[in-house]
Amino acid sequence: MNGTDVSAGERDIADPAGGERLRRWRMVLGGGEADGTGCALTGRDAAMDAALGALYGGGGEAGSRRTSGARSAGLGGSAPNVARWLGDIRTYFPSSVVQVMQRDAIERLGLAALLLEPEMLEAVEPDVHLVGTLLSLNKAMPETTKETARAVVRKVVEQLEKRLATRTRATLTGALDRSARISRPRHHDIDWDRTIRANLKNYLPEYRTVVPERLIGYGRAAQSVKKEVILCIDQSGSMAASVVYASVFGAVLASMRSIATRLVVFDTAVVDLTDQLDDPVDVLFGTQLGGGTDINRALAYCQSKITRPADTVVVLISDLYEGGIRNEMLKRVAAMKGAGVEFVTLLALSDEGAPAYDREHAAALAALGAPAFACTPDLFPEVMAAALEKRPLPTP
Predict the structure, then answer these.
(1) pTM of the model
(2) Quick one: which of 394, 157, 381 has its CA closest to 253?
(3) Is residue 239 predicted with pLDDT exceeding 80?
(4) Closest C-alpha to 151, from 131, 129, 165
């Protein structure tokens, strides 16, 4: 036998590491004459390859099992085929990969309509992007599906609240306390920890005590409303993930007695969802993703609700593609800032970074002292804390 006649199986026996490399290349390349590996897949590898092929290949049915040859593909339009495929990918891949594959299936193969069937929703792995898709289908959703859809959305919302709520409350409570600190507090309003730290230089060792030359404390109305926050959210289709995160943060902020929170969503119309903030699921189902954009109209509404400009933070979450009157929009932002409002512009509130956005409008807002930037959910509490304390924003 010469070197050119060695089979793939013989190579595997002679060089196990090389066989593993061939197997991985075969999984990547998808099989067929063009891959050049000569490697056949069996068992779990073949099942994984079929699941990948159903989405990323071309032709065939989901869930098929092929042990060699070209990767077959196609989920077809059949709900049973898709449900079987969803079960397969949850069996063979980790949750993070499953979510990516589901998103690709919805976008590449037009499977959104199948999510209107309750049995399909029960099979999917819930995530922020799936919630965005469900919200976009809300108006077309049959009554038999709505309760299942709400359960899917609630599961994602509860996961996000568990991840974000505690840190958000702690960060913002600290910011509010610092912004309310006074230097001549009444005795029962003294913050003794901060007072002692501020006066350590006055320690008298012979008396083993600190002389508190400077007292630090909080105002008497510590539990009253100190700041007002208006979340103004663009509900165009590209902002779906941002709408989900903003609704969760809105509910968290609304749970803090010292912050008066208002949540406004807009496209070409403006909807105030503040009275639903006790349940972010209700907020989300009150949105209507898609449609045009009129930022100027939304900001006009928000401006009309400001009663204490110096104690108000307005957070505009938008890709800034304005369908309304651009110059009026910019004038409103300038007027609010001139009155003392802290104005924050977020191009996105998500883990994916900024989508496409209007760079000209972003530059114009930056020139007004309201720089526009994308913000991750983990950074958002720090951004809000800085805005409440009127500090420079921690832009990425």
Answers:
(1) 0.68
(2) 381
(3) yes
(4) 131
